Amino acid sequence: xxxxxxxxxxxxxxxxxxxxxxxxxxxxxxxxxxxxxxxxxxxxxxxxxxxxxxxxxxxxxxxxxxxxxxxxxxxxxxxxxxxxxxxxxxxxxxxxxxxxxxxxxxxxxxxxxxxxxxxxxxxxxxx
Length: 127
Fold this sequence. Notes:
Number of strands: 5
Helix content: 55-70%
Low-confidence stretches: none
Order of helices and strands: EHHEEHHEE
Strand order of the largest sheet: 1-3-2
Distance between the termini: 61 Å
Strand content: 5-15%
Number of helices: 4
CATH class of the largest domain: Mainly Alpha
C-alpha cells in the first residue's frame, strides 16, 4: 500500500504542502518519479509524498539547494546498495566459517600423532 500509486497530483501536492507545479519541477529534475496511467495522468504513492516532504524539509528547513538534494539522494541510494552488499558478504562469511569449522573438526578427529621416533600415523579415534 505504501508504494501503490493512488494520489493525483493535486492531492499529492496538498498532502506534501506544495504547489502542483513544484511537483512537476521535481519530476523534471528527477527528484521524484510518479507512476503514470495510460492517459499519462501522474499518480503518486505515499512513499512519493513522504519523499516530497523530505525534499521540502531539506530545502526549506535546512537550506539545501536542489542540486544538494539530488546528491543527498544519490548518496543515500549508494549507502543502501553498499548495505545490501555488506549483508550478502556477511552471510557468505558466516557460511564459509561454518564450512571451515566443520573441516577443522574433521582434522582434529583424525589428526596425525607421533607413534615412534620419526613415524607419524593418523589417529582414527578421538582422544
